[in-house]
Amino acid sequence: MIDEIINNTQSNSYDKEAYRQKKKEQLEIAYGTIKDGINELKTNPSFFKDYLNIQSRFDMYTPRNAILVAKQLPTATQLKEWSKWRDSNVTFKERYPKKILLLDPREPYRNKNGDLIKSYTAKEVIDVSETNVKPTNRSYDRKYILQALLHDCPVDIKAVDELSSGKVSEWNAENNAIYVCRGKDVDLTIKSVVEEIAKINLYENNEEIDADKVECISYMVCSRYGIKVELDNMERFTSKYSNMEAEDIVTDLYSMKNIVLDINTKMMQYISDKKKNLENKEQGR
């Protein structure tokens, strides 16, 4: 009997080599999926939009991880590792929920030549749709969104009745200000202001303004806060990438992602502070 117990225990023990092989295979799959995704960005306008939607919802993710999610589950809204769902006492709809592979950065190391090498391992995450948790749909007061945008704007804000260009808002580089028209639809105003802020950031980084990037940045920011923005003629985005190398495409995606994250970080801090102030006022009554 003791021999049987020992044998069963050993057979169920952790197999380090098998785990290492599994992670290696997962990493190869992840890199292959990213490669396929980048190629698809060159040819499939619908997939490009899927990517933008994922990067909008997961603005902390790198473009490569956003591509991975867009390829595996473009409807994903909340991703966690199995252990983190378990720690929250969350149950799954199925015994084996669908898992999504992501790249997880490891500690950088130096090779024999002294070069700093960034390495990754594969990580599995599960979307909230695979759990019995009801997804949370956040809603944001449009007034607070606009206030947050204007509060941390990198230039002065000036209100005007109208602009000769016919725009809702416009960045004037010479006066170092964004002029915003009074009395316009709030969603259109938010979209327009995001576009002008995007122009400022792009110009500061590259001393040039890419109109397509401006539109994509505005789409991602607005989508995050539930503001509907239409992207017309999606083919123009894919055609832009059709002759670009993979690394150049990723660099291009990073340039947009970083601006989106910067705008969102400042906005969420303002909205969070505003909410705390209101709660403190309520408690003080």
What is the total tally of β strands?
8
Q: Based on Cα principal axes, name the global outline.
A: globular
Secondary-structure element pattern, one letter each: HHHHEHEEEEHEEEHHHH
- What is the CA-atom radius of gyration, in angstroms? 23 Å
- Kindly state the percentage of residues in helix: 40-55%
Fraction in beta strands: 5-15%
Number of helices: 10
State mean pLDDT (0 to 100 scale).
90
End-to-end separation:
71 Å
Strand arrangement, largest sheet? Answer: 1-5-2
Q: What does the main sheet amount to?
A: 3 strands, antiparallel
Secondary structural class:
mainly alpha
Q: Poorly predicted ranges (pLDDT <50, ≥5 residues)?
A: none
Number of domains: 2
Account of the protein in words:
There is one protein chain. The chain has about 280 residues and is mostly helical. The protein folds into two domains: about 1-130, no CATH class; about 140-285, no CATH class. It contains ten helices and eight strands. It has helices at about 1-10, 15-40, 45-55, 65-70, 80-85, 140-150, 185-205, 210-225, 235-240, 245-285, and strands spanning about 80, 100-105, 110, 115, 120-125, 155-160, 170, 175-180. The chain has a three-stranded antiparallel beta sheet. Strands 6-8-7 form a three-stranded mixed beta sheet. Strand 3 and strand 4 (about 115) form a beta hairpin. Helix 6 crosses helix 10 (about 245-285) and helix 7 crosses helix 8 (about 210-225). It is globular. The model has no long low-confidence stretch (mean pLDDT about 90).
